[in-house]
Design goal:
By secondary structure, the chain is mostly beta strands. 12% of the residues lie in helices and 37% in strands. The chain has one domain: Lipocalin (Beta Barrel), CATH 2.40.128.110.
């Protein structure tokens, strides 16, 4: 009888211990960690970046580094899962007036890239103008770039040694309002897109995009060749049907990404 009681007591202890282990593993009485914050930490500086007259060697005057910049586009290929993508080989940051919309016999920038200003903490003073040459769309497929893209976009073929800034070959953007994004370090941009496309005359539409500032940094720090750089990245989208583009190979929505890099060399 004594042996039975000892065995019974041992079994009860094992059961009680096991229950305690199971209950402990449920963590029902634990204090849960604080939830992760969903509020972005916004850290804006006071940078003021201006082009001046783009004088080489003047470190107070910022120059567009076109060789390391890009204007990219993408849209869905209708009827398939993939994207159609490309870039514009020729672009600039200039407010092209009607009088300046002409052909320029040059392989370099036809107009100065000085139509912009950036104030990191005062976006009301920030503005920029830009343009692309439509026939310079480059998908990496020469037959497409020199063929269906030319007719489909309402422009003309490239002429070697000429920068074509005429009305049928020019798409322009001009900011009308830039605001701080309260949820990030970005900026909300309202801009006008002006392009003729396949229409009888240019159409201007107001669009909203997002601007990112890639903060100023020094290259080759501590050397005689040191210089500073910064970047601006603008993204927006538009409906190409508004501009008379009827191609059934692309969807309505075209996304644009402008990656502009600057230096003060």
């Amino acid at each position: 009888m004594k042996l039975f009681n000892n065995k019974t007591l041992l079994a009860l202890l094992v059961l009680i211990s096991g229950y305690g282990y199971i209950a402990g593993c449920t963590h029902e009485n634990d204090i849960l960690p604080a939830p992760a914050t969903t509020t972005a930490v916004i850290n804006r500086g006071s940078a003021i970046l201006l082009p001046g007259n783009m004088v080489v060697g003047d470190t107070t005057q910022w120059k567009l580094d076109k060789a390391h910049s890009s204007v990219l586009w993408q849209t869905n290929y209708v009827g398939a899962a993939g994207l159609l993508t490309g870039r514009f080989n020729q672009f600039g940051m200039h407010n092209v007036t009607d009088a300046e919309m002409q052909n320029y016999v040059t392989t370099g920038q036809p107009l100065m890239d000085t139509s912009w200003a950036f104030y990191e903490s005062d976006p009301a003073k920030t503005y920029f103008n830009g343009y692309v040459q439509i026939n310079q769309s480059n998908t990496g497929e020469p037959a497409r770039d020199g063929g269906c893209n030319i007719s489909g976009l309402g422009t003309v073929p490239i002429v070697a040694g000429t920068q074509n800034l005429t009305v049928t070959n020019l798409a322009k953007i001009k900011t009308t309002k830039i605001e701080l994004d309260p949820l990030s370090e970005d900026y909300i941009v309202t801009l006008n897109l002006t392009w003729q496309g396949k229409l009888a005359q240019p159409l201007t539409e107001s669009l909203v995009g997002r601007l990112k500032y890639i903060k100023r940094a020094t290259v080759n720090a501590g050397t005689a060749s040191a210089y500073d750089v910064f970047g601006l990245q603008l993204t927006f989208q538009f409906d190409c049907r508004d501009y008379g583009i009827t191609s059934t190979s692309i969807s309505d929505n075209v996304q644009i990404e402008c990656n502009m890099n600057f230096n003060n060399k």
